[in-house]
Amino acid sequence: MKRQKRIAAIHDISCFGKCSLTVALPIISAAGIEVSVIPTAVLSTHTGGFTGYTFRDLTDDMLPIARHWKSLGLEFDAIYTGYLGSFRQLDIVSEIIDMLKTPDTLIVVDPVMADNGRLYASFPETFPEGMKKLCSKADVVVPNITEASLMLEIPYSEGPYAAEDINRMLRGLSALGPKTAVLTGVYFDGSGLGAAFYDAASDKTDFALSERVEGYYHGTGDIFASALTAGLLAGLGTAGAVRAAVDFTAGAIRRTWEAGTDVRYGVNFEAGIRAFIEDIIK
Ligand code: PXL
């Protein structure tokens, strides 16, 4: 029997609000992949729309966790990073990647730091520059349009977008280092919204769109990137993994829109897990 695939997921734990590790764990585990975690911080809720949240910085725990894993000889098929709890963690994550990576480890960096044209609360203005450096270590990057604009130092536009602008952004992202760039929150004139992706080897851009639902839903970037990572490790290839991740995320958004729940509480991805797994495990 083949060894079970194993991922190291480096994100915060937002105790309430369905994002980061509380979505990465169930989604990737459901795909049959083992998830080991290095928590970057523990918050009572995510920072998107809540006030008064607690924040426990775990910067000083991260390297000791990775060093212990290294001493045990653990190997990972992927290292998947998201929300970081401090500027210092950018260099720490880079060091952890160097420490744990084998020639076969897929490095997925979701440069979580901004949305809707603005940096998230508590991120310094210098963070995008640092994140750009971390992205140069990745095989796959998964920014939204705001994050990509910040790293590429171009003005943010809220869309609709032109295909050539999206194409230029994807090439710019890939030029930072990653062979695959996936851009989320892409929409053109018309009713679709989804992701665009670029593969440096074939120099090709493609799109996977789904029916657009009005409104902003929290945690969907993390759900998308987690589903994408699971799909890539399941062997779907970029196009297949992006398509499955778009369908899964769009389904969760549609369900939540129909239910009319508070958008800060996250989306109902749980009800779509069975279909997602049937989609990616053939
Ligand atoms: O979903 C991205 C995210 C993750 N973690 C925390 C956040 C956010 C976005 O606001 O605040 C703590």
Protein described:
Helix 8 (237-259) packs antiparallel against helix 9 (273-280). The protein has one domain (6-280): UDP-N-acetylmuramoyl-L-alanine:D-glutamate ligase. 39% of the residues lie in helices and 22% in strands. With 282 residues, it is an alpha/beta fold. Strands 3-2-1-4-5-8-9-10-11 form a 9-stranded mixed β-sheet, with helices on both faces. A two-stranded antiparallel ribbon has the order 6-7. The chain has helices spanning 21-30, 59-71, 88-100, 127-135, 145-152, 163-175, 220-233, 237-259, 273-280; strands at 6-16, 34-45, 55-57, 78-81, 106-109, 114-115, 118-119, 140-141, 180-186, 192-199, 204-211. It has 9 helices and 11 strands.
Which properties best describe this structure?
single chain, 282 residues, alpha/beta, UDP-N-acetylmuramoyl-L-alanine:D-glutamate ligase, nine-stranded mixed β-sheet, two-stranded antiparallel ribbon, 39% helix, 22% strand, globular, binds 3-hydroxy-5-(hydroxymethyl)-2-methylisonicotinaldehyde
Distinct small-molecule ligands in the complex: 3-hydroxy-5-(hydroxymethyl)-2-methylisonicotinaldehyde
Q: What's the main sheet like?
A: 9 strands, mixed
Uncertain ranges:
none
The assigned structural class equals alpha/beta
Strand ordering within the main sheet:
3-2-1-4-5-8-9-10-11
- Please trace the helix and strand order, writing H or E for each element: EHEEHEHEEEHEHHEEEHHH
Could you estimate the helical fraction of the residues in percent? 25-40%
CATH architecture type: 3-Layer(aba) Sandwich
- Gross geometry: globular
Question: Per CATH, what is the topology?
Answer: UDP-N-acetylmuramoyl-L-alanine:D-glutamate ligase
Calculate Rg over CA atoms: 17 Å
Count of all domains: 1
Name of the CATH class: Alpha Beta
Cα(first) to Cα(last) distance is: 17 Å
Task: Give me the count of strands.
Answer: 11
CATH superfamily: Ribokinase
Mean pLDDT: 97
Into which percentage range does the β-strand content fall? 15-25%
| Tally of DSSP helical segments | 9
